[in-house]
Amino acid sequence: MIWYGLLVAAVAGERVAELVVARRNERWSSARGATVTGQGHYPAMVALHTGLLAGCLAEVWLAGRPFVPALAWPMLAVLAAAQALRWWCIRTLGPRWNTRVIVVPGLPLVTGGPYRWPWLRHPNYVAVVAEGVALPLVHTAWVTAAVFTALNAALLTVRIRCENRALAAATTTTAPAQA
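^ thats the sequence. predicted structure below, dont judge the formating
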């Protein structure tokens, strides 16, 4: 259980690193006239992700979940892949990446890195979904995995709609009126 606690703490540390990057990027975006949308769902997102970390530890400890190597090792690989995908997204978006929906008007959509595939419009959220399943299942915390997945699906529905609207509005340029 100690090593699992260290793994969850490492993921929590990664989240703190994300927040540091997001703050820096928010300042960059604000200096360029960015608009912020979707503030209403952001506290729920923070609570849900904090709940994932707490739920992993609580379920393993309180329910005495066993370590099952046949499940744990593949889930650890999925977790590592999710982290790699997340940081690939962060690196590709550069100062435009954020934990909030912040868009600088007039900038074109990013089409490099994992964003180059039109069938994968939101690769960062693929990483979030994979992590939400894999992290709890590394130590068979299946209730946490199921609850997080269900709540996250509802939250991502709101988040992706919000983000798509913000990106469409910010990247649409209006042509001058014709006489």
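The chain has a mean pLDDT of 94.
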